[in-house]
Amino acid sequence: MGIREKFVLAVMIGVAAFIALFTLSLLEQRKVVLAAYEARNASVVDLTVSMLQQIDARRLDGQMDLKAAQDQAKATLRALRYDNGDYIFVLGLDGGFIVNPGFPHLEGTVPRDLVDVEGRPLLSRLADVAAQGVGTVRYRYPRVHGGESVEKTSAVRLFAPWGWVVGSGAYVDDVQTMFAKRARQFAMVVVPLGLVLIAGVFWLARSVAVPLRDLVAGVHAIRRGDFDRDVSHTDRADELGQLAEAVESLRQVAVMADDVQRSRELMAKVFDTSREAVLITDHSGRIVLASAALCAISGYAATDLVGQKASILKSGHHDDEFFADMWTRLINGGAWEGEVWNRRANGEVLVVYERISAIRDDSGRILNFVAIMHDVVEHSRNQRGARFLPMHDPLTNLADHDLLAEQASRMLAKASRTGRPVALLVVDVDDFAQVNAAHGMVAGDEILRFIALRLMKVVRGADMVARLGGDDYAVLMEDYSGVAEIRAVATRIIEAMHAALSVGDSKIGISVSVGIAQAPQDGRGFTQLLKAARAAQGLVKAGGGNGFHLIGQDAAA
User: Is the pLDDT of residue 357 over 70?
Assistant: First the structure.
């Protein structure tokens, strides 16, 4: 073989090798681009599901109901475009379209004429794959309504809380177009420029591989939460430029999702740093959130409260009528407030002033209850300052002996001018020493708190209740209509104490003896009045207790 033939052969071998290498390069590029499209689809679907999770989290926090959350999600998805017009579609598990920005007229329908490459119903196939969690499906689908169906690949993933199948697709012939374009370019190049074309092939491969590597790194950065990294190659006019724009769109969606998450974290910090104790339950009263302030005053950890019924805080002191009234006001009026005796984790009674509001959806259905409360004793101390401590009993938060004497002196001075009577009732627990011995000092202290609350509930609104010390209490009355009204108050006190008290696991029954004196006939000063009331109380004790005696009256009740 001569030199010319060898040269021609060498050129032909070189051209053949070039053709083979270029063809292999194009095929590899086709695989890489297809993989990039599929990776893009999966990333778009993942980020979309993340966005839906953020919206659903706001729903679970009580910021909106399910319909409002889904409507917001639909509006966001319909407006979202990327990669030169591609969009997100959403199916139900029955194969029906929920969101389809490309063919909005199909929303709400279950088309039966769309099939995949194997002839199976397309929408059912997508729904079946998504029901497994996440997957990729190839099928045939028209680019425009009424047009010819072409092969398409879509990533789909199930958003289980709503039963939505979220999908994003790309047309496979886009990759074929790119491959054909490269082949036509080669066909137009003359054989004598083969070496130049070979060099051009290597350059072209480099110009594709490097951007793809950069874009893949960009996608990984987005998945890691590194949103500050700029996406390169967005200025390119080819498919890689479009792919770079899609990655940039994904980055922007991720940034928005991250902003939402940061907002949630900020709201959580505000919730937990509030000085007011906050408790949020669902419509059935099951706790969903407990603030740090609530945990501090109750002694419970948030993990101990969440998932439990709010009744975990009940002290057992309030009767069924109290809670029935509370629920009636909440259901009918949407709000309730008042003083509640709860129980701390260590068993101690906690008196709080509580404001409860019902949160409803647009249809009026109750979604949550929000309770804001503060420790009554601690709040009173903070509000009244140093004077509160020496003038109030620290165990029951009632007025003490000195404050009672001060108030009684004012009432008696007024009574001496107006002639209106003043009455003092002294209340003492029968055999309280035996209760302490049987159940312990801690239980005894809790009983004393319960007695204080029951006294406050049965006396008139204008009456003053005080703790004189130990198991000794007093009720100061003025502006009453006569002896019958005093007797009515004393009777309510006796009857209120008959209900057993729940202390720990024990039910404890108590009774009280009540002595009653009036001014001016039984004394014009507080000391004289108190002495007369104690004398009347002594008569009740001598008769076995569990009753009252009014000075000047022959019979004791």
Answer: yes
Interatomic CA distance for residues 506 and 509, integer angstroms: 10
Q: Is pLDDT larger for residue 171 or for residue 106? A: 106
* 365 C-beta neighbours (distance < 10 Å), count: 9
- Is 354 in a helix, a strand, or coil? strand
**pLDDT at residue number 477:** 94
Q: Are residues 271 and 295 in contact, defined by beta-carbon separation less than 8 angstroms?
A: no
Half-sphere exposure of 497 (CA within 13 A, CB side): 25
Q: Which of 152, 149, 142 has its CA nearest to residue 38?
A: 152
At 64, is the secondary structure helix, strand, or coil? coil
- Cβ-Cβ contacts under 8 Å for 112 (sequence gap 6 or more): 121
Please check the confidence at residue 388 and state whether its pLDDT lies above 50.
Answer: no
**Residues 252, 244: Cα–Cα separation, whole Å:** 12
The token pair at 320 is 């069924």
Q: What angle do CA 44, 247, 82 make, to 5 degrees?
A: 65
Tokens of 2: 């001569």
User: Residues 147, 77: contact at Cβ < 8 Å?
Assistant: no
pLDDT (tens digit per residue) in 538-549: 999 999 999 999
Those residues with Cβ within 8 angstroms of residue 312's Cβ, 6 or more apart along the chain or in another chain: 287, 300, 305
pLDDT for res 269: 63
